[in-house]
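Saturday, quiet lab. Running sequence design on the structure tokens for the scaffold JK sent over.
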């Protein structure tokens, strides 16, 4: 199920990155953020139901970091909020992602968690301090493609 989550998280990061370039309005990206957030929520609720050990719960917690990000973002976009709260949530997630990287035993996941942490940290700076980070749009697209979309496809086709 991780591959399914990653595939669609890759799609939402790609669309959000394009939105950050100014080619899409936030009201155009809000529905996808909601749909992907709900999908990842459902997948992780199933994982929570099936969880048998601490590693299973840890995995689900990582998935919740993603789903709450996109659900929160969809609300901000629809209600045209500033996003300061999401920025501070992104700091929480960036720091949590460092813990996930530290505790992972797969070098690919370590790299992915470190890259995700860096992206969430940049969103923290951008949203909480209203800083315009010029490369954030393209970095978001790069992270979405390289750490979510492609790994998700590889997992779903048994090439991971």
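Result came back. Writing it out in full:
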């Amino acid at each position: 199920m991780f591959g399914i989550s990653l595939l669609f998280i890759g799609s939402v990061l790609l669309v959000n990155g394009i939105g950050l370039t100014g080619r899409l309005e936030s009201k155009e990206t809000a529905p996808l953020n909601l749909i992907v957030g709900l999908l990842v929520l459902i997948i992780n609720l199933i994982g929570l139901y099936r969880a048998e050990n601490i590693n299973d719960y840890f995995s689900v917690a990582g998935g919740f970091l993603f789903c709450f990000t996109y659900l929160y973002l969809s609300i901000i976009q629809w209600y045209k909020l500033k996003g300061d709260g999401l920025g501070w949530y992104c700091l929480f997630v960036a720091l949590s992602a460092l813990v996930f990287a530290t505790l992972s035993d797969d070098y690919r996941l370590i790299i992915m968690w470190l890259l995700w942490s860096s992206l969430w940290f940049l969103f923290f700076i951008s949203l909480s301090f209203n800083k315009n980070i010029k490369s954030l749009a393209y970095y978001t697209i790069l992270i979405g493609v390289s750490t979510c979309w492609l790994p998700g496809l590889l997992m779903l086709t048994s090439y991971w």
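Notes for JK: The radius of gyration is 15 Å. The CA atoms of residues 67 and 100 lie 16 Å apart. Ask whether to fix the surface positions before the next round.
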